[in-house]
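Notebook, p. 212. Picked up where the previous page left off. The plan for this session was modest: take the two constructs that came back from the sequencing core last week, fold each one, and keep the raw output in the notebook itself so nobody has to go hunting through shared drives later. Recording the first one now, exactly as returned: residue sequence, then the structure token string.
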Amino acid sequence: MTADYVVAVLTLYLDLSDTPLRPSPLDQSLARKLHQQSGPLPLIESALLLATLRRFCRPSISLRFPRSARLPTSCPSSTNSSSSPFPDGYLDYLRLKLRISLPTRPDVQKNTFSDDR
């Protein structure tokens, strides 16, 4: 059970944009600690999504927050928010908001047979 939980937390974290390709030992340690604290996965996911949205949705005149290099910078203690459950559909809303807010990547090559080369 612990290993499944740790893998789930790390997968949620690594699936976000601007995160490393592999989890660090510190990330793995925090995921195990979250399991010991009984942090529910939906709460962890919402914290990760909110942290990512906060970085991407800042006004353009503001400095951007640095990319998240470690899980601890993105995931608050599970005891902070566990007393207030979120409404149905909240995670879906956060996922949609993030999908809309992410900067789009320019196409490297629009068409294989393009004349624009």
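Okay, moving on. Second construct, recorded in the same format:
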Amino acid sequence: MPDHSIRDRAYGDRLSPELTACFRALADRRRRLLLYTLVSEPGHQATLDELADHLLAEDPRATEEERTALVTELYHHHLPRLAHQDIVDFDPDEQTVRYRHHALLEELLPLVRRLDAEG
């Protein structure tokens, strides 16, 4: 019997709010990398600096200016967006991020990660 769990979350021709939130979260490569990192971290949490370091590990030639720009982008754009969608808890004062378990997103992440790896 086929698994229709994702399709069943749609409303006719419209997507459910839950599925729409997942697609919005996964639409941006940086957000996907953040989610891959948080899902694999012990306790599903990290500091803003740890996330930036992990994202920059792909480019060892990144400058301090690029790191600062990335931290700013995460702090002001990506993390608040994920928090608004109830995917992460982001404490801007403590600069900590905790992934909130999200069943539908966890169904989609392995597929999207495989697609990212294939290029």
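Notes on construct two before I forget. The chain has five helices and three strands.
Flagging for discussion at group meeting.
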